[in-house]
Each structure stands twice: as C-alpha cells, then as structure tokens.
Amino acid sequence: LLTPLCLRSGLQQVPCQQRGLQQLVPGHAKGPCQPGEFACKNNRCIQERWKCDGDNDCLDNSDEAPELCRSLVCKPPSHTCANNTSICLPPEKLCDGSDDCGDGSDEGELCGEWCGCSLNNGGCSHNCTVAPGEGIVCSCPLGMELGSDNKTCQIQSYCAKHLKCSQKCEQDKYNVKCSCYEGWMLEPDGESCRNPFKPFIIFSNRHEIRRIDLHRGDYSVLVPGLRNTIALDFHLNQSSLYWTDVVEDKIYRGKLFEVVIQYGLATPEGLAVDWIAGNIYWVESNLDQIEVAKLDGTMRTTLLAGDIEHPRAIALDPRYGILFWTDWDASLPRIEAASMSGAGRRTIHKETGSGGWPNGLTVDYLEKRILWIDARSDAIYSALYDGTGHIEVLRGHEYLSHPFAVTLYGGEVYWTDWRTNTLAKANKWTGHNVTVVQRTNTQPFDLQVYHPSRQPLGEPLGGGTGNGMGCGESKRGVLG
Known about the structure:
With 480 residues, the protein is mainly β.
C-alpha cells in the first residue's frame, strides 16, 4: 500500500499526515458553476448568456441541446405561443389586442404594463417591449447584447466569446480578426502567429538541465552532473544560465559552473533574473525571505522578510519595477507583489476556493498578466498585475495532476507535472489543445522558454542611478 506523498517544494516528499497537509486528489472535475454561468455536461462552465446562441461553447454541444433550446429559439423581444412553441411572434404582435396565437397567450394581464415602456423606456437602454407572463423585456439592436443587468446594451465582445486567436484579437464589425504581437507573423490559418527566432525550452530535473527544441521536439543536455537543481532562469543578452542547487545551497551561472552566491543560503527555491538592471532575485524557503544581488553575486541584501510564511515562486517585470511571489501560508495562501526595491508590498490574490498551494508563477509580458499553477486544486490561473481579471485557464486535466512550475511563450502556457513526469502546454486563455511536449524518467522541476519575448527590452527604472536595484518607483508608479 502506497502512502500518498505531499509536495512542499520538491525537495522532500513525506507522508501528508507528517506535514499536516491535505492529500492531493488527482484529476477532479471542476466545482459548481458560479451564478450567471451554465453547467455543461462535460463539467465545463460557460456564461449563461451563451446558452442556445447557435455556438458550441461547451465543446460537447450541451449548451445547444434541442430539449434545452426548443423554447429559446424564439429570442426576446419575440415571443412564442403557449400552445405552439413553433410560432414566434415579433414584438409588434404582442399586446396589440389581437389574439394572434389563437390561445390568448400573446395577450393577457401583463399587457397592462405596456405603459412601462413609455416611462423611461422601461429602464431599457435601447429596445423595450412587454411580453405576456414576463412583463418588460429589454433587447438590443444587431451587434449589441444585454449586459448583466438585462437592461443595458453593450457592443458584443466577439473576442471574449470566440477565443481562437493565439495572441491578439480585434473586433471587425461582427467578426473576429486575429493579429500578432510586434515581430510576429500571422500564419495562413489566420489565427496562429510565428516568430522567426527559434525558441527552445530549458528545464531542470534535479541532476541536469536540458534543452528542448520547440519545433523539432528533440532534446539535448545543457548542464550534466548536478546535485539537486530546482529553480533556473536565463539572461538572454548575456547568453547566461542561472540555477539553484538546494543540496549545495548555491546559485550557479553559465556552463562553467561559476558560483555567484555561495554562503548563507538555506534552500534557495525560486529564482528570477532582472535582465534590464542586472540583478538576480531568489526565494529563501527555509528563512522565509526574498533576497537580491547583482548578477555576479555582489551587493547582496535581504529585500523582504517578515509576514512571509512559505514563499515558493518568484517572477519579475523589470520594465515596470514589479516583483511577484507566491506564499503557501496554510492560513492564507496568496500571491503578493511589491516594487523591486521591496516597497509598496500588497496582496493581489487570496486563495479562498479549492486552491491553496500556489506553486509556480510566471509573467505574461505581452498582456501584462501573471499566471500561476496551484498544486492543491491542480489548476492554472491568470490575472492582471493588480489581481483583477481573474480567470481559470485549466483544471483537473490528466497532465495537470501535480504541477510544479509554469512559463509562457506566445499564446501557450507550459508547465511541468510531477505525477505524470511530463512537460505539457495548452492555450493560455482557454486551456484547450493540451499537448505533451516531453516525457521524462524523473520528476521535472523548473522550466523557461528561451526567447526574446520572454525578456522584453526597456530602460532600467530610476535612470540608471545607484545600484540599479529598485529606484524605479520614484520614476514610474508600481501596480497603478
């Protein structure tokens, strides 16, 4: 009988009861849908207003089932007859004193409320009518749809509904038009984008760092013979690779095993390179603090300490001087942010649902969003830098059953999974098209995509004065 093992950081796996942690449950379905959402038969949740609109939003067509949509084919402000739902009357035929249905259902007591449309248009922003049995019904002209208040019309967000563009989406009249980020080219399918720079993945599996070609799929060993490497990052312009070793408690740089941080480390897990100002940031898991130094290890200082319980992952956007990190605090699992000098600290996401172990964290520099994976809910989430715009990208998939690290490239999110020993990818907005990139014999840890888009250029904040380690908040606002 195997005892379920719990994940804290990837350094030790011990029985859950010894750590006071909850056992992971593999492959569970998504929980109940939220108000205003429709529960598909495949456990997917979509917006209620997408039901019976002619589109297969559930992907199993359960939102367009005939038994569900029979009474909804005739959409407001039109109205079906009570005894014959195949008859769909336009609004001008309702409450006009004529029994057009033959059963009186297009007339009735509620027709007395017709005057309601004469008073402030019934509260409707555009079209107002009265339907028997329903009262005032608001509707919208072509190209618009009712908002959440069912009264105000807004321009239909085709981009929000039809998430087919891999990068940028523009609304062209009543259609969706895809485009690409600067430097990318639109593929013939009109949806995908490509970049002439050949990207590749670098990832660690304790004892070596590997490289995977994203186009051909083949891999090679970059750095062999390591003790226990966990976190890694790179500096594109300097062609340098950085990684942590939690057995030797050191931070290394490059292929020559140059030690840049050697003493006083206690389980350095998360690691992030500031490619603009030339610094490295890391998480000290045992000391529950975040430290920073120059790329060569000099000018080392403790950046954040106190009120940090179990820091795990770290990510940066040096263009705006923002630092993000995850915290496994048992009483309040969360994601925090601060300026890269440690000022302006704030919580941008509190885990109050089924999550609780925010494991990996990365930044979408093109969309100004963060993405993280949670090893308790086995899910990938996304939000804007200030924590708003929160969405669930993917949950409970076969290859998302014990995730550890996450990164991005273009329109796809990449992650490592311990239970299946895989590197996988999916659409960063919808979680669709889950694909295994690489299978490994041992558990994969951190991963990055080596590509210029993952380190966009910008000017060092603070005008290049001082040590370059966080003068930026005086020049640009952090998190708004």
